[in-house]
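To the wet lab folks,

You asked to see what we're planning to order before we commit. Fair enough. Below is the target structure as tokens, and below that is the sequence we designed to fit it. If anything looks off to you, flag it before the synthesis order goes out.
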């Protein structure tokens, strides 16, 4: 790295090398202490001392003091570079990372149920700006978006089967749940919210929690199903 400084502002214009024991003259130019002292030794006979660059003169000969600021800077820049650790900017405990960030992971702000991916604010923009994403469904971020996908058909769980008390996909409606009492998960949730207003707060917590689990979390056992029982 020292070679790259030799022609820069941290170099001495006398020896053309990086500054060693740097000193700064009143005119603002900096040199190695030994270099400028040797230069001025040759001007002792005239009694007038000048800056090798701008020719600003000094009389009497200035007393040189090491520039601690430049010395500290040179010391830090001469240290070997340390590898930059992988930093996850904006991602805290419990946050979901953007699936498309590469170097620095940012916090995801939305999940797409069509792409089956989560996006930060920057990578989400094409969903708002491009017509190609017009039919994509954006939802709040999911830690595991696969929880909303049918493991049998790989489709979105957007239907609620009242007959079996579980969330299913559209292909399930035409397959294992053909002829069952079904409706959209969103409609089921809204209907349960209305019921809570009729049957009181004691039932509210139970049915809303069950509906929320179905539509939002979709955490159920695909083997035995999630049974919803009303008393």
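Sequence we intend to order:
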């Amino acid at each position: 790295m020292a070679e790259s400084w030799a022609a820069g502002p941290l170099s001495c214009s006398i020896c053309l090398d990086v500054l060693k024991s740097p000193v700064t003259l009143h005119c603002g130019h900096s040199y190695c202490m030994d270099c400028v002292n040797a230069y001025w030794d040759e001007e002792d006979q005239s009694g007038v001392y000048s800056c090798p660059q701008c020719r600003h003169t000094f009389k009497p000969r200035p007393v040189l003091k090491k520039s601690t600021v430049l010395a500290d800077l040179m010391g830090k820049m001469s240290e070997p570079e340390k590898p930059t650790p992988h930093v996850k900017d904006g991602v805290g405990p419990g946050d979901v990372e953007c699936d498309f960030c590469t170097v620095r992971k940012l916090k995801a702000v939305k999940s797409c149920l069509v792409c089956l991916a989560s996006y930060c604010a920057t990578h989400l923009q094409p969903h708002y700006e491009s017509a190609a994403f017009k039919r994509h469904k954006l939802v709040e971020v999911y830690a595991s978006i696969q929880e909303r996908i049918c493991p049998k058909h790989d489709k979105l769980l957007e239907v609620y089967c009242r007959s079996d008390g579980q969330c299913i996909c559209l292909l399930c409606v035409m397959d294992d749940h053909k002829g069952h009492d079904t409706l959209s998960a969103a409609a089921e949730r809204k209907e349960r919210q209305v019921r809570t207003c009729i049957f009181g707060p004691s039932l509210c917590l139970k049915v809303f929690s069950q509906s929320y689990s179905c539509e939002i979390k979709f955490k159920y056992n695909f083997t035995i199903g999630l049974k919803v029982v009303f008393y």
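Structural context that might help your review: The beta strands are 22-24, 30-32, 49-50, 57-58, 110-112, 117-119, 138-139, 159-161, 166-168, 182-184. Confidence is low (pLDDT under 50) at residues 1-7, 84-88, 201-208, 210-231.

Thanks,
Computational group
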